[in-house]
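A reminder from the course coordinator: this example appears on the midterm review sheet, so study it carefully.

Given structure:
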């Protein structure tokens, strides 16, 4: 996959950032990379911010209910103390950590660890969401993912808030946010535009074969 290294070198560290809006699959991609590293026999530690208890208090869980065991940290500096023996350090929901995360990620990478970070690159007003922009600048590999706009069906880059709140940090799911394309994004708050999810058609239609 573009943005992911294809050669894994022992004792050589680097930073990978997976970014995008809500519902774009960032955590899913983080879990996929973590599992690949585990299959390769590497020591993997996954960390998420203490504030995020949406699906589980400790486990890392995607919107599609894919999960891996994880640990929580209240501050970025705690991550170094928790990942001493790890070869691969995965950090989810990085936008909820303080700006020290940039130095922490650099320190981990400089010590020979592979650092995989996932997070929102913009807030609900469409402004850069620290510390992700600075992590993008120092990362060796960057992957930007897109969701599907709940209004137009086009690729969505923005996270539209659909509940009344002016707080920059509001931990929520589909009740609070929708993915939106640029021309459908109306900050700071808009009415929900969710469409009913169509049921998947499991039937297979047989095509006529020429005689």
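Designed residues:
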């Amino acid at each position: 996959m573009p943005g992911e290294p294809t050669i894994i070198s022992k004792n050589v560290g680097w930073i990978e950032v997976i970014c995008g809006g809500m519902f774009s699959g960032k955590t899913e991609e983080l879990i996929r990379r973590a599992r690949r590293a585990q299959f390769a026999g590497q020591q993997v530690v996954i960390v998420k911010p203490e504030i995020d208890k949406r699906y589980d208090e400790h486990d890392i869980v995607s919107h599609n209910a894919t999960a891996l065991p994880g640990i929580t940290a209240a501050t970025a500096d705690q991550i170094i103390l928790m990942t001493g023996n790890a070869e691969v350090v995965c950090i989810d929901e990085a936008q909820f950590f303080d700006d020290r995360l940039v130095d922490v990620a650099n320190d981990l990478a400089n010590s020979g660890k592979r650092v995989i970070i996932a997070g929102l690159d913009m807030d609900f007003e469409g402004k850069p969401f620290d510390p992700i922009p600075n992590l993008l600048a120092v990362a060796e590999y960057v992957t930007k993912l897109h969701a599907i706009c709940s209004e137009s069906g086009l690729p969505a880059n923005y996270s539209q808030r659909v509940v009344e709140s002016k707080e920059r940090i509001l931990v929520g799911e589909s009740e609070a946010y929708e993915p939106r394309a640029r021309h459908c994004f109306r900050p700071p708050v808009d009415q929900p535009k969710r469409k009913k999810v169509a049921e998947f058609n499991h039937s297979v239609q047989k095509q006529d074969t020429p005689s």
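Residues 14-146 form a domain with the Rossmann fold fold (CATH 3.40.50.300). The first strand starts at residue 14 and ends at 20.
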